[in-house]
Amino acid sequence: MANVSTLNTVGAGFDAVAPEVSGPRGRRPRRALSRRNIMLYGTLFVAALYYLLPLYVMVVTSLKGMPEVRMGNIFAPPMEITFEPWVKAWAEACTGLNCDGLSRGFWNSVRILVPSVIVSIFVASVSGYSLANWRFKGSELFFSILIIGAFIPYQVMIYPVVIALRELGIYGTLTGLVIVHTIFGMPILTLLFRNYFTALPAELFKAARIDGAGFWQIYLRIMVPMSLPIFVVAMIIQITGIWNDFLFGVVFTRPDTYPMTVQLNNIVNSVQGVKEYNVNMAATLLTGAVPLIVYFVSGRLFVRGIAAGAVKG
Fold it and tell me: Domain count of the chain?
């Protein structure tokens, strides 16, 4: 009987506190239209408008004919959509003595981009992996030199690099430009990979060593599968930098091997004939399409790579 009485008393106690336990907890939800939210979303809207308005102008202008462009209302949508400016920018616009549009420069840029990205990312990832997990004598000095190289202005190195490529007999060729992009991309990429690999659990590396795995086995079977986000970060950085580069393209190549950005400059700054603003806008959008597509396809992995250790020391 005493046990039954005790249980009843405990049950009554639980019933007494039940309403308080089942009630709402935590902080009071904020109002959707609070002053803080208005300021935050207002600032974001202004920033988005600042970047999207020029893009809108380029798109609508590229879809207009020249008579409509001459009317002067750059913000108005096209009354009659035409893709003739895009066709002319791709295949007919004059870039100096050649009038084959951006098509030749596009394929030159592709031939520059693909080997530069593959080689620089491979060498940088292996170097970062070595600096993070296979410490050797002088590794810290080597890493310090890489850090210094990552922040030296490119303009300082142009003349010595021109002399070196001339002596090697590859100045003015796509091969020479690929080597230049690969070398100048490696310092910052090595820093990113080294910091990322350092942030990975050291127990995985030690366990693989105990199991008898070697340098390449650990790199290919453990590090690479776990490092997709940082590889995407490196890929986006290299694609954006190499594709949008103008300085190296105009210095280290010749007219028949100009990349797309140099040809775009020749189209936009041409002083012969009529200024065809619709063709210029179409050419600009065509030139910037590749890095934009790459970022939109892999942007989520880019954010993950940055947040997962790409900027950690």
Answer: 2
Q: State residue 279 phi and psi, 5-degree precision.
A: -70, -40
Domain carrying residue 62: 52-82
182 by Cβ neighbours in 10 Å (0-12 / 13-18 / 19+) ranks as: buried
Distances, alpha carbon 202 to alpha carbons 189, 197, 220, 242, 296, in Å: 21, 9, 16, 34, 33
In whole angstroms, give the CA distance from residue 157 to residue 285.
Answer: 31
d(CA 195, CA 310): 6
Q: Comparing C-alpha atoms, which of 209, 54, 210 is closest to residue 134?
A: 209
Q: What is the pTM of this model?
A: 0.78
Provide the residue type at 186 as one letter: M
Residue 173 within a domain: yes
- Does 271 score more than 60 pLDDT? no
pLDDT of residue 113 exceeding 90, the answer is: yes
